[in-house]
Backbone:
């Protein structure tokens, strides 16, 4: 156990791409936690996909030892947090395990929406904030402008902001000194009954669920019988330890310390992020504040391209869910696509990451349908239905009303783009709430906007209309009634259930028409003409045709050319294999996501 | 030089290979590269000593192959390019003479074609070659419209093509020409004019193919940059059907996807490619196809094995290639006893596929033969691709 006075628990928070993980790498290097030799770029982002995309999906906690200029040796627990709005709850729990935070702002980009959102979360958690201006090595760095934005936009004094370059390592030692000097030691009671916060967990196939914890009061020791206060489950501490970054067992984790806990529990649902651990006997009576259940926001159908892979997909989802309690799924049957799953995600990034990991780590070929949200449907018979998939939407005649989820969205932009954002948001059924100037160069706008609009294309269009300057953050607001319809797509006269989607009454015509047009571009010409229709119930809103293929022949071919021409045929065939055959129409996978890619 | 096709391991008297039926000689030289061309050829001048050296090498390889017995069953010879006529009468005669000498005589050769371009063929060349045993000339015409010829980067004009054709016609009736549709500036009317001219010039074999934009060609770049506009696939389809309708009315058989001939003038060499005859290619960039006695089909280019098909794959390939011909695939082909194959299962799989394509309207099944249905030849790849995909079938994996 370390003297709590020498413990510093902190996290690095930043907008995506502002260089957080690279900075964490330099910290590990400078404290000799990892030798240069073993260093993999972005050590803390251990999944391939995290490294490739430069994002953090799961939090990590690493203990480093730092010999400071004051002659004392400090224990730093660096808690890395996800940098994306999909994972806001995880960020909030990670922050709750900290006493301070290093707020990284890119010297070339300045303050962005998640900088604000994360800083606010850190301030709400009463963390001491150390502003850091990163990437000062870049020619486009504008330190003074960023300083002003931090002061005006976040109301954080920035004259003592630490200037660093995660790339060159400049300023990293100064940063560590600032951590030792400015971040408070943990406050808690070593004598009180144990209270430890579970701020993350992962699944290990040999050990079961491993919880990452912060001891707030008391201490946790091997062999203790523990109680999980939210779930009421009890278990014995089989092993406790610290991550350096490899798991290193210890006998005891004392007040203020951060480490991991193995209990032998196998079901991730029993070890919930945000739950409080205490002793089974004589434990605390009050849990730590802030626990809530994470709920999926976005749903999509995921189907194996090859129907034989359905069982493999189920196994893969089961395995993935062990490490990702936010992932929810149930079987779904589509006439068009066969057997698959309706999968719930925290957001679009979460969805993309999961789909990509399923394909990559489990060698599956998957097809995803357009994302939808959870609708609350009240039927004329007085029933309440929770509908995750357009397929499950009852017939319009049986619906009394539908409610859909709304978000409170925060958009940060330079003042020039206020008009563009207003126009875009109105077009996406957003209700303007208010706006304020954070500085002369940054405006913060607040909207209530349906989640379904936001997941379609709002963010992409926001980016393009503001030349990439806008940043967006959102949180769940609540359910509101809306006049919604189910729009069906018919190919060759037959409805393709996997192409149906829910749309607001006022947008049905225009969306139906643009979708039919888009599908016409996406679906290749086939041996027969393929009529495309967009319809609500029996009412056809729009129709168009994919003309029959007229010419596809390697006319000029001679003896010396056969091998090459045959390879062309093989390539053509490989292209077809990636398509889904429905009836006798070959449909490329992107058709199922066409709704996300409509022209403006 | 020194990179001419080396038919190593491909000699016909070795017991391992089926004897070659066809011989192809490649002449990789032209006066100028056409804007759509991606063939193995280089532009030079007729006086270039490299041409003599190249002919010397061909002659010595011909001698070597003959010594190995590789030429004794050859039935067709085709000198193609590039531009063979660019070599001039002297060099070409030398080549033909060397072949005659190496093979003893050309008595067993039923068809001997030399490709020529209008600007480099003359009466003397035609007469000399005809006297030596060349009995078929294939003239690269492409179009009888001077603007279109310019757009293709051809150096001849319509008048010189007409003149060349009359010169050839005075020696032999066995005259073939190429015509291309989808050329920049071409219309249905100018296309018809070219078709008319081709027929009235006395061509008895006409190859018709659409312009295809190959990677790295000048024309491809020009189209990509928007400087030149070419016909889309639908327009090409219209032009190809226009040619088919017209030529059939004029008494030509549409005997192969890209080939029309009056009765008796089908190209035997060309038919050999689609019916699985092994061929020996000599010259830079010429491909050789050998059939081993275990049924494997091996293709060799510039001394390297570039393609080896198992007996199963070779059988599927042949089924696919035969579909290029109007005669298609005889039922007996499907159920014949083929080397090294468990025939029942594969034959059933092939027949099932062919029947499916009859259902789809791609094929017809008449008089004991499966062949491409009328007008479906424009969708040939749909047929070829489906047949070739059988090679990938589980039951073929041993």
Residues:
């Amino acid at each position: 156990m370390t003297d709590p006075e020498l413990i510093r628990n902190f996290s690095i928070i930043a907008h995506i791409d502002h260089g957080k993980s690279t900075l964490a790498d330099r910290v590990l290097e400078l404290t000799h936690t990892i030798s240069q030799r073993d260093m993999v770029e972005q050590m803390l982002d251990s999944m391939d996909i995290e490294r490739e995309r430069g994002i953090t999906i799961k939090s990590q906690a690493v203990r480093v030892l730092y010999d400071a200029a004051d002659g004392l040796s400090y224990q730093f627990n660096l808690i890395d947090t996800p940098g994306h709005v999909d994972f806001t709850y995880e960020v909030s729990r990670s922050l709750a395990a900290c006493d301070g935070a290093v707020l990284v702002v890119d010297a070339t980009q300045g303050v962005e929406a998640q900088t604000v959102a994360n800083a606010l979360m850190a301030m709400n958690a009463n963390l001491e904030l150390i502003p850091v201006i990163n990437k000062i090595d870049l020619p486009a760095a504008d330190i003074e402008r960023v300083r002003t934005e931090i002061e005006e936009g976040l109301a954080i004094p920035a004259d003592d902001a630490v200037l660093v370059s995660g790339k060159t390592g400049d300023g990293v030692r100064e940063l560590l000194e600032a951590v030792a000097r400015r971040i408070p030691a943990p406050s808690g009671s070593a004598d009180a009954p144990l209270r430890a916060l579970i701020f993350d967990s992962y699944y290990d196939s040999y050990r079961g669920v491993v919880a990452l914890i912060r001891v707030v009061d008391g201490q946790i020791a091997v062999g203790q019988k523990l109680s999980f206060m939210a779930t009421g489950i009890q278990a014995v501490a089989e092993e406790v330890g610290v991550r350096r970054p490899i798991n290193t067992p210890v006998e005891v984790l004392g007040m203020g310390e951060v480490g991991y806990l193995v209990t032998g529990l196998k079901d991730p649902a029993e070890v919930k992020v945000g739950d409080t651990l205490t002793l089974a006997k004589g434990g605390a009576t009050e849990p730590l504040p802030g626990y809530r259940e994470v709920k999926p926001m976005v749903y999509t159908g995921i189907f194996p391209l090859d129907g034989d892979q359905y069982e493999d997909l189920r196994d893969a989802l089961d395995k993935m869910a062990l490490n990702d309690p936010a992932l929810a799924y149930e079987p779904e049957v589509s006439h068009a696509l066969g057997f698959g799953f309706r999968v719930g995600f925290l957001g679009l990034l979460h969805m993309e990451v999961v789909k990509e990991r399923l394909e990559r780590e489990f060698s599956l070929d998957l097809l995803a349908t357009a994302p939808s949200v959870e609708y609350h449907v009240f039927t004329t018979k007085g029933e309440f239905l929770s509908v995750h998939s357009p397929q499950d939407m009852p017939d319009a005649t049986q619906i009394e009303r539908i409610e859909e989820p709304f978000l409170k969205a925060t958009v940060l932009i330079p003042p020039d783009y206020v008009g563009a954002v207003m126009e875009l948001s109105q077009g996406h059924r957003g209700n303007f709430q208010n706006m304020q100037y954070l500085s002369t160069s940054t405006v913060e706008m607040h909207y209530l906007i349906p989640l379904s609009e936001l997941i379609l294309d709002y963010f992409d269009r926001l980016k393009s209309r503001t030349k990439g300057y806008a940043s967006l953050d959102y949180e769940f607001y609540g359910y509101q009634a809306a006049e919604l319809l189910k729009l069906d797509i018919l190919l060759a006269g037959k409805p393709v259930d996997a192409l149906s989607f829910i749309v607001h009454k006022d947008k049905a015509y225009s969306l139906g028409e643009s979708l039919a047009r888009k599908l016409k571009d996406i679906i290749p010409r086939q041996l027969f003409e393929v009529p495309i229709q967009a319809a609500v119930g029996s009412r056809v809103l729009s129709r168009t045709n994919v003309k029959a293929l007229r010419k596809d022949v390697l006319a000029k071919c001679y003896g010396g050319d056969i091998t090459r021409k045959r390879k062309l045929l093989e390539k053509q065939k490989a292209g077809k294999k990636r398509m889904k055959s429905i009836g006798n129409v070959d449909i490329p996978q992107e058709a199922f996501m066409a709704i996300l890619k409509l022209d403006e | 030089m020194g990179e001419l096709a080396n038919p190593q391991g491909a000699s016909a008297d070795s017991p391992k290979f089926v004897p070659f039926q066809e011989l192809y000689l490649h002449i990789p030289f032209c006066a100028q590269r056409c804007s759509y061309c991606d063939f193995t050829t280089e532009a030079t001048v007729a006086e270039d000593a490299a041409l003599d050296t190249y002919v010397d090498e061909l002659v010595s390889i011909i001698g070597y192959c003959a010594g190995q017995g590789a030429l004794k069953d050859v039935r067709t010879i085709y000198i193609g390019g590039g531009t063979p006529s660019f070599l001039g009468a002297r060099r070409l005669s030398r080549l033909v003479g060397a072949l005659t000498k190496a093979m003893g005589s050309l008595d067993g050769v039923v068809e001997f074609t030399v490709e020529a371009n209008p600007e480099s063929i003359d009466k003397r060349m035609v007469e000399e070659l005809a006297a030596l045993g060349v009995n078929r000339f294939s003239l690269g015409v492409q179009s009888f419209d001077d603007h279109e010829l310019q757009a293709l980067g051809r150096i001849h004009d319509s008048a010189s093509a007409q003149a060349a054709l009359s010169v050839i016609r005075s020696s032999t009736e066995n005259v073939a020409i190429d015509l291309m549709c989808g050329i920049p500036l071409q219309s249905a009317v100018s296309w018809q004019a070219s078709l008319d001219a081709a027929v009235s010039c006395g061509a008895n074999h006409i190859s018709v193919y659409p312009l295809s934009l190959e990677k790295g060609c000048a024309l491809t770049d020009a189209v990509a940059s928007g400087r030149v506009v070419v016909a889309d696939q639908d327009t090409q389809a219209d032009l190809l059907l226009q040619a088919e309708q017209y030529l059939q009315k004029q008494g030509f058989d549409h005997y192969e996807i890209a080939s029309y001939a009056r009765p008796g003038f089908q190209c035997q060499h060309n038919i050999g490619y689609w019916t699985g005859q092994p061929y020996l290619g000599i010259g830079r960039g010429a491909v050789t196809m050998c059939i081993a006695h275990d049924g494997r089909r091996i293709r060799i280019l510039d001394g390297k094995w570039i393609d080896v098909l198992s007996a199963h794959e070779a059988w599927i390939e042949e089924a696919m290639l035969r579909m290029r011909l109007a005669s298609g695939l005889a039922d007996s082909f499907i159920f014949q006893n083929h080397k090294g194959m468990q025939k029942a299962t594969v034959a059933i799989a092939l027949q099932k596929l062919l029947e499916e394509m009859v259902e789809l309207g791609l094929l017809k099944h008449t008089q004991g033969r499966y062949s491409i249905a009328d007008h479906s030849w424009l969708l040939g790849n749909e047929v070829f691709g489906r047949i070739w995909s059988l090679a990938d079938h589980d039951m073929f994996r041993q």
Summary: Chain A touches chain B at residues 527, 549-563, 566, 569-570, 572-573 (CB under 8 Å).
